[in-house]
Amino acid sequence: MDRLIDEKPANLVIVDNFFLGKQRNLQHAKDNFPIKVYNQDASDYDAMKEIIENESIDVVFNLAVIPLLSSHVNPVNDWNVNVNIVLVLCELIRKNKFSTLIHFSSSEAYGSAKKIVMDEYHPLHPTTPYAASKAAADLLVLSYCETFGIDASIMRPFNNYGPRQNEGSYAGVIPITIKRIMGGMPPIIYGDGEQTRDYIYVTDTADAAIDVFNNKNTRSKIINIATGQEITIKKIITTIAEIMEFDEHIIYEDTRLADVRRHRGDISLAEKLIGFKTKVSFEDGIQQTIEWYKENIIIQT
Q: What CATH number is given to the structural domain containing 117?
């Protein structure tokens, strides 16, 4: 949202049912731009149609999603909401209710790496209902591009991290680890910790989203957004512990259900189409993330 404000749009609208999102994360944007916020389920066709028409929306950046870990608890809801959000948006753009869709996919659609590095032609092998919903949604967008000629691009970010990331239910490893150490509890590693991810700092992904929108040569394509580097979960957790001066033991627990083993994104296409280059190193990004949580999250004792 902050990055969109830099573009000085005529109108800026947020649609979120706040399943995980928090109003506090919008405060900086509200202080700097007259945004409108609708507390609404984006999978509701009639509601989205009304919002888009009433607000004269031209471009939709679709980041709305029910997260991965929720699909272990309620897979039907995860699938239905994630796919229906995209179906609603595809139908609305097909009916000329808005002009351009920038859809956010997920590297989880690939499943565990069959080859390194993972380009956009890597086979889709989702291992969770969440991942399957993201793969299906991407195919749905592409089908509307082919059949109806909608103006849409698909970004496929790998693991994002940074300030304001959800630290509560269904949180990712980085905010969970920071929060546990802040509360005096040891970090947890699931499995052997040697599984890898390609972590990218949130501002690099936000910059990429603007560049994807601004470059028409991205239309009807899936584009990886990553660093092109992989890091083990063990390394992530020990780095956080070191920065936070936590030198006690780390707990090891059983591997998470359907956890992917290895990820490393090929960013050649993003480099070619939008001149993509990351600006924030993992070390700097983790440091900034830790500082944000220390300043903004209160640990109940």
A: 3.40.50.720
